[in-house]
Amino acid sequence: MAEAKTVHSAMVTYASMMSLLTLCPPFVILLWYTMVHADGSISQTWQYLSEHGLQSYINLWPRPSLVACKIIFIYGAFEAALQLLLPGKRVEGPISPTGNRPVYKANGMQAYFVTLITYLGLWWGTLHHPHLILVLGMELYPRIGKNFDIKVFTNCRFGMMSWAVLALTYCIKQHELNGKVSDSMLVNTILMVAYVTKFFWWEAGYWNTMDIAHDRAGFYICWGCLVWVPSIYTSPGMYLVNHPVHLGVQLSVYILVAGLLCIFINYDCDRQRQEFRRTNGKCLVWGKAPSKIVATYTTTSGETKTSLLLTSGWWGLSRHFHYVPEILSAFFWTLPALFNHFLPYFYVIFLTILLVDRAIRDDDRCRSKYGKYWKLYCGKVPYRIVPGIY
Ligand code: NDP
Fold first, then answer.
1. Which of 4, 38, 83, 329 is the most exposed place for a label (fewest CB within 10 A)?
2. DSSP-assigned states of every residue in 117-159
């Protein structure tokens, strides 16, 4: 368990260092303090800060330690080695606006299982590990050499992988503190791990999404995946470590089933769009031939290309329906904390704001890419996210 403590500590050190390096507001540390030492109560943290002054705030910052730096370096190097060395299918990404088609090696699921088995094996072997929240161009497809894709490393193998590792770490930590794992923690961990497993199962599909195909490897993406994901996305689990809630079997099962269903629907939305594009519209959508718009657009080099826009299935309900189950999944893995404090719900609220903004940005980008075809799509599918409402 000492290992779980050290891993958590190293993650705290990592996020704080990254916050300092990037001169970002040290919000992560306040969140960590409130979750771990102030029962998730913002007013308790505010009282502590007003009583003890600025020095107390400075004292909150976990100091970087050599052990934390070593853990982060070894974790990063381990993930980089798995990305380079594990076998995987050759997968082609979407064509960029300049006409380039990136090629990837799809070995995320293998890397995911090797990581979790290695981590649990290390924990089991030594039976027993908070310094990680402090340590951490603008290319569309930045690479080292031909094979080491930096965005796959930062977004998937470091960011998303650390989500699963930390979810397990919080579970182990609660077991270390209480000699057992509460049903609330179990529901939270199963749902977060199921979500990350789904992510790696579909990783090659992720290489076709906005993060990879449109957003450049600048501050927004890199800091978000290297710092924000490990520290904020996992925060409901961090809260539950010191605040085990007894839900009972019935409520646990209801929350678990609802969460798993949302994770599945989110997966199925992404799968449906990608299957439709992969087969050039020659697939069944909800058992029927898909309805579609054949849209043409011009690349920056002046070439005219064609894209298909699906207007049935999930993509006929609203233009970004997949964000609804994404937000609900996060709600269901936070719900085990019940409603004693607002802070465990920070991620759900943040995610809602992020996805509403993302839907607006994506609509704007698609409107300028597809012009009249996008207008046609908006006419057929008028709602942006929530059918009938928005
Ligand atoms: P996607 O990239 O999957 O989808 C948007 C793109 O799909 C558009 O840019 C357009 O690209 C294409 N498209 C739009 N409408 C249609 C249509 N009707 N038919 C076919 N193609 C269409 O979106 P995201 O990257 O936002 O989401 C991917 C996944 O990641 C989702 O599951 C989402 O919930 C999740 N996510 C999670 C976040 C988190 O922080 N937890 C943050 C963001 C996303 P093109 O130019 O190719 O036409």
1. 38
2. HHHHHHHHHHT----BBB-----SS-EETTTEEHHIIIIIIII
